[in-house]
């Protein structure tokens, strides 16, 4: 029996990509993942036509076939880390690239001339995650080549006006966004956001992604018991969540967990749609930049304006060392990961002219939320 081919089309700005699969759960995954922030809808397989595509096949034989191609490139395969996975990649010339992540059992073949990328693996869920990830990268490439930039920032929206929060990992970007979203702002992004000049304003679009929330913040936001109850009822969080976190939630433990070596906290991983369905937040699909926040977390501090002056830099764009997770190994972006130089300069100049505040936040969630709500009123 021939497999049923299904397709999901994604729209963000003027960018389009279609996810095609022999397994309905794969295309359904993309609709769920992207639907809250981008346009994501099912299309008949016979109407797919031309245009950028991610073809995701759940098939062990296809995986073996694509994996074997990695050793047939022009040069010896190079080993890189892609999406935290050990990946061997090689070029065949003419824009054709093959890659394999053996531990994840995922194989890839990209043809950048036609915007086509094929993914294969024997298991449904890894293929679904990879298809969504690569579809997002294809959208990213189209938007960046069209003059957008990608910033390392969270974003909330009220009446179309967008407040962007900047900082390195652990600075409080997600915390600030979730606190404001709990006080009536609409959540647009938790870690990355697209920005482009539009006339005399800056247009903002979301970068859909699972959000990482520490157990302490989850508890402080009064969401801990809710999450535990839903998990015990059989619902699930995003599968990239570490099993130790799931076990802690099932056991009712609120103690923060850390990776081996203690450098990074292990956090829950929330699907985009769960912000609305679990936490009752409203999601925004766009807006225009109106202000900037630069938070800093000090556990024992009372929330207050900070004395230091913070400005934007190249580190605030998702390029270079800042883009440590998705290097452009498949040629989907083909420009600087944060946007071209002209676009980055224009966005930096426009953002610098907007109202901005450096703030210190402590560990008193209510006090932080009250302070931020007053500051942004």
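-> sequence recovered:
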């Amino acid at each position: 029996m021939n497999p049923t081919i299904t397709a999901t089309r994604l729209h963000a700005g003027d960018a389009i990509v279609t996810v095609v699969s022999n397994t309905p759960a794969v295309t359904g995954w993309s609709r769920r993942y992207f639907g809250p922030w981008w346009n994501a809808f099912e299309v008949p397989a016979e109407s797919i036509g031309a245009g950028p595509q991610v073809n995701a096949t759940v098939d062990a034989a296809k995986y073996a076939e694509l994996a074997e191609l990695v050793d047939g490139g022009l040069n010896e395969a190079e080993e890189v880390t892609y999406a935290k996975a050990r990946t061997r990649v090689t070029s065949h010339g003419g824009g054709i690239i093959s890659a394999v992540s053996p531990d994840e059992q995922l194989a890839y073949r990209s043809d950048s001339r036609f915007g086509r990328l094929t993914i294969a693996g024997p298991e449904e869920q890894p293929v679904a995650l990879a298809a969504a990830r690569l579809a997002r990268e294809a959208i990213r490439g189209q938007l960046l080549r069209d003059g957008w930039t990608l910033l390392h920032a969270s974003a909330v929206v009220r009446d179309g006006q967008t407040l962007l929060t900047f900082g390195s990992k652990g600075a409080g970007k997600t915390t600030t966004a979730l606190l404001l979203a709990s006080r009536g702002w609409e959540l647009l992004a938790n870690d990355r956001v697209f920005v482009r000049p539009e006339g005399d304003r800056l247009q903002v679009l979301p970068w859909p992604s699972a959000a990482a929330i520490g157990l302490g913040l989850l508890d402080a936001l009064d969401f801990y018991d809710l999450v535990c109850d839903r998990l015990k009822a059989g619902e699930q969080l995003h599968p990239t969540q570490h099993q130790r976190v799931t076990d802690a939630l099932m056991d009712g433990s609120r103690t923060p967990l850390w990776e081996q070596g203690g450098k990074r906290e292990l956090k829950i991983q929330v699907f985009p749609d769960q912000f609305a369905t679990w936490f009752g937040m409203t999601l925004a699909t766009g807006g225009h930049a109106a202000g900037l926040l630069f938070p800093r977390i000090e556990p024992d501090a009372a929330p207050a304006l900070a004395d230091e002056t913070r400005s934007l830099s190249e580190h605030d764009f998702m390029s270079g060392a800042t883009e440590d997770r998705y290097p452009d190994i498949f040629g989907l972006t083909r420009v600087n990961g944060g946007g071209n130089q002209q676009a980055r300069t224009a966005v930096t100049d426009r953002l610098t002219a907007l109202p901005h505040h450096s703030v210190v936040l402590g560990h008193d969630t209510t006090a932080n939320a009250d302070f931020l709500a007053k500051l942004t009123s």
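Residues 124-145 form the longest helix (22 residues).
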